[in-house]
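S.,

Sequence below, as promised.
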Amino acid sequence: MNDQKLKSLLDKYLSGNATKAEAFVVESWLESFQYDKDEAAPFEEEESQDLLAEQIIAKAINNNVAVESKPRNSFKLWQKIASVAAILTVLSSVTIYYIKDNFVKKVTPLSTAFLSYKTKVKEFKQLQLPDSTIVYLNANSTLEVQQNFTKRSERRVKLTGEAFFEVKKDPKRPFNIQVGDLQVKVLGTSFNINAHDTNSEIKVAVNSGKVKVSTKEAVLASLVVDQELVFNKSSKAFAVQENQQNAKALWREGIVILDKATFTEVSATIYNIYGISIKSSDDEVLSNRYNFTIRSSRTSQQTINQLCETINKKHRKEGSSIVIF
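The prediction came back faster than expected:
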């Protein structure tokens, strides 16, 4: 069965763009039966559906005679629309037809696809979303924005990595960020999210306004200015603490303040800023927690020297990596 030809003919008829001949074919076929509760059964059988569809297609192809459309009263129009709608249920279509008060409106659903914005290592981007929200996207991060962003009742994005948001206030359309297992919901505020895949934790820190952080199961916290929620990816445990530095997102000024960071987090941060991998097989190095400030104004060599001096270790170069021992 040629579904495309059938759908095209019905689309033209319902939108009022069918020729007189095409309208006559559809109307003649619709009037060949009465669509009521007792006679709806033919639409429930696949073979009958195919047969009826084939009949419409054949008439549409073979009928080249221009004829006058018959007058239609509201009851007959309703019958025809209902019949067409019943047939449409057996077709694969991205169009939904709503029938109300003898009026047919064709609605194309909004796309569920996302547009992606990415940064590379050593790269930083400032983005302006269609609603005028500003996003500062840190290195090695991805922001996905749902298509038709401004036409939705809720503004929805996805984040992997780190970003600082200055959300345009809109009380009627909340701004929702999906980040791992967390949902961050706001109306209009500024805040930072750090959720790199290499990190063991997701951190949400508020610079202004109020932010609600949730999982699928429950609301974890409503954060206010200078508060930060730290969520452990593995245990799902979380804590709320004061953290003004993260709330200000000083990384936008080339300053990263690490607080009790793991070696993996230190290594990932250095890689994102300088594009240099550091590694170690030293148990002490790997188990340490680091309070360390990285400034992008310094060279990578200066930063690694300072790190090694802090923990009283040495380093050497192996290929493109730095090994701390």
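The longest strand covers residues 155-166.

Coffee later?
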